[in-house]
From TrEMBL:
Superkingdom as given in the UniProt entry: Bacteria
Gene3D superfamilies: Jelly Rolls (2.60.120.10)
Domain Cyclic nucleotide-binding: 16-120
Species whose genome carries this gene: Aquimarina rubra
Name the UniProt record assigns to this protein: Crp/Fnr family transcriptional regulator
Pfam families: cNMP_binding
Record InterPro entries: cNMP-bd_dom (IPR000595), cNMP-bd_dom_sf (IPR018490), RmlC-like_jellyroll (IPR014710)
Length: 197
């Protein structure tokens, strides 16, 4: 079967952890919804119930919450070959606390809760795939929390730059500051200082 490039990217992501037969690949693809989001548009907003688990095939999105003053706190950036969404809302069907906004024109593949449950029934090996995916996500979240406590703002910036070199050039300094947890002005000073070294 000739797959679209977006489907090839997703199947390559899945194949890192489980092997699928041709029929299983076709079944999986049939359960997905193609979604497009224009730059600056929301994929999801706080108060909504998450309808899909998303895989990004093109573009860049930011996931964030707003504090009482309305300032954003970015928890992740998601680019091609990344998964995103709000797993808690997706599983519990309770309203999300998160906003997901496209910082570039983006294309995604989404799996609904109904099709997610159907997938597990029809191809049980996907339970292993999603378990590994969620474990990796949890480990990443714990590490990020620890970095927030133990590293200086400059060290957090350097760590982000080292870990996500492909994202740094695609996001604004303001968004990077909201991710690291500092003001844009302080972010600017850190970048100037690091570039001088």
């Amino acid at each position: 079967m000739n797959y679209k490039e977006s489907h090839k990217l997703l199947l390559s992501n899945v194949s890192r952890f489980i092997n699928l037969t041709e029929l299983e690949k076709q079944k999986y693809i049939s359960l997905l919804t193609e979604i497009k989001v224009k730059k600056k548009d929301f994929l999801m907003q706080a108060g909504e119930i998450t309808k899909y688990e998303y895989f990004i095939t093109k573009g860049c999105l930011k996931v964030y919450t707003l504090d009482e003053e309305g300032a954003p706190h970015i928890s992740m950036f998601a680019i091609e070959d990344y998964w995103t969404g709000d797993l808690s809302s997706f599983m519990t069907k309770e309203p999300s606390r998160y906003y997901i906004k496209a910082t570039e024109h983006s294309e995604l593949l989404g799996i609904s809760r109904e099709n997610y449950d159907l997938l597990f029934r029809e191809i049980p090996k996907f339970e292993r795939f999603y378990r590994i995916l969620y474990q990796k996500s949890l480990i990443s979240y714990i590490r990020r929390s620890n970095y927030g406590i133990s590293l200086t703002a400059e060290e957090r910036y350097l760590e982000f730059k080292k870990k996500y070199p492909q994202i740094v050039s695609r996001i604004t300094q303001k968004d990077l500051a909201a991710y690291i947890g500092i003001t844009p002005e302080f972010m600017s000073k850190i970048i100037t200082k690091v570039n001088r070294k």
